[in-house]
């Protein structure tokens, strides 16, 4: 039978009431109830028998406070003890406020523990039994080192409990402790949210770990954790961090805003995650190193600051039906001897390569989709990777690149809409291609560099902007059942000493079928061009549809890359006249005119046998987008050609993506190749400041800058470099390398266009296309430009051209409604045709 013991101050509680809680406990028998009157009771309590302490008037009315300098406030030495609706204050935040001894048991319900931790110790070995603790609807706050520490053979359960404001780790498990936490809310810890050591175990359900100073959930040694339907928010380091031989299984968890990587798996740890998401990680979304393994299914990784998935060492990663979206580096990056397996995964909108495989790593991709990345798939490992039934679409650069000495098997791959070549095979790479398509690439469908000899079977290449297949000097390989349709350049280009074998290939609707350089040695077996046999060395007659068949030669590699050959001679006075006809740019025109006069003098001194004064022809063009920088750069090259200071005067326009490689050793050759295309003319580097980011770190842009400086010195008389970009950022670029400051001695400032100048640009466009603005339209257009915000989206001349295009579209819609429009109506652009300001 349960006996009730009352504790109340003197004069309260009636006859038989105890004056201290300790007295009531000592008088109680196992199973008795101690009811405590409201107030603060300064005592060190020892619960050595099964008693229940409860507040008479509910939660918050009773405080048990440890005497100053003494701790803990409550010590539990017996089994089946309980505290209900009681607040416990520790005397020192770094010491226990509640201490549970080995073999004891405690239930805290509707309780608060402040200014000290709850410390539970279990037996050192399994034969000593266990210590059992349950916390329901409790709050632990203001401790130091740890809010809750479970050590040894402890079995604990938390329900609807909050741990907050801990100067250290929120919850620590060590030894063989086991914790089952349901609806735990852990906030504001300076250390990790939860830390597991030894052989401890955790089950976490429907919980939130938020605002930890270090990892949200840290597993060490041989610990194990299962977490379901839980959130880890804004940890100061990793979201979930596994080391040692730890194991974790995550289901439907959300990890947001980790200051470091979202998921970290190291040493021999193992992670399994299903239905989880990682977003806005300050480093990688998933980092796997050592010989650790991670297996993810139906997971999402969004907006990582570093590569979304990074594997190093001998780590293994298996991702199935996962999505990677956004990110400042690669989608998936495997290095060392790591192995990555991707099945039915999607990677979109990352700033670098969708899947990058370097050193001796191995990748296996099956049924994956890569879209909107800088480059699609980059293989740089000589250990054979496999890519099957995978789609690469809309890349800004190359679709699939196989680096020097790398090896890969491509089966059923589809590459569509690449901003450069579809497939590039570098020197010495071992590549087999079976089936698949390459479509709508801006460059060649497939590029095979010197020394590469791929085996290609059943590949279809459609609508490449340049060649279907381009083989560089000394390249080779076997191409069987290859189809090339609608190529803008010769379908097959074979350079000097290249000896590819083409078997059963079909070429249709191409500009030319075969182009060869002197010394090329292609072998053609049963190949046709528009149904006509294709024979090397004998031009095929043009078919009835006017499309050519075979041709004995093709444009050079430089021409295939977009260089149209030697420009015709131009008159200096005509070019200066063309310069002065440009709308606005008065200051730029004056600066260019001064440069021309200076260079004329230099030229005359050279012709007279006099030494030329020191002169740097390289320029910085500083201005906002659409202010005519590219137009003036192209004209500047033609002016120097007319002056006899450049051989050709052509313009090669590049940006960071054309100069900076994706891995060590790639940037130098890439920058050199772009520079060599500009020899004899102008290399125009748009957004040049991106080569010198404010926080460069190990950025390859610095290597591109160093390479440029050396090339500018080696070819000082045969090239002009113009670096362009926003005015405020170009100072950083020039200052990023001492060699740049000495070579870029002059900056031309391109000022924004005034409203009247923008109107003139529209009128110029209208005249070129046989349109005329009415006086009212001209006045309204001026007002539109005058009111247009000059923010980040304003494009100067580009905005003017866009408005002209919109006006013609609106005019076409308006005129289409007229039954019989007159000639004047067909050419007139009226105020009705102007876009509404709110639509811009």
**Helical proportion?**
10-25%
Measured by DSSP, the beta-strand proportion falls in: 35-45%
If helices are DSSP runs of H or I spanning 4 or more residues, what is the number of helices?
Answer: 14
Main sheet specs: 43 strands, mixed
What oligomerization state is this entry in? single chain
Mean pLDDT over the full residue set: 88
Structural category is alpha/beta
Which outline best applies?
A: elongated
Q: pLDDT below 50 for ≥5 consecutive residues: which ranges?
A: 538-566
Radius of gyration: 37 Å
**What is the total tally of β strands?**
73
Q: What gap, in angstroms, lies between the N and C termini?
A: 82 Å
What does this structure look like?
The structure is a single chain. The protein has 840 residues and is α/β, with parallel strands linked by helices. The chain is built from 14 helices and 73 strands. The strands form four sheets. It has a 43-stranded mixed sheet that branches. β1 (4-7), α1 (21-27) and β2 (33-36) form a beta-alpha-beta unit. α3 runs antiparallel to α5, α11 packs across α12 (775-787) and α11 (755-768) crosses α13 (797-816). It is elongated and about 120 Å long. The N and C termini lie far apart (82 Å). The relative contact order is 0.03. Mean pLDDT is 88; it is low at 538-566.
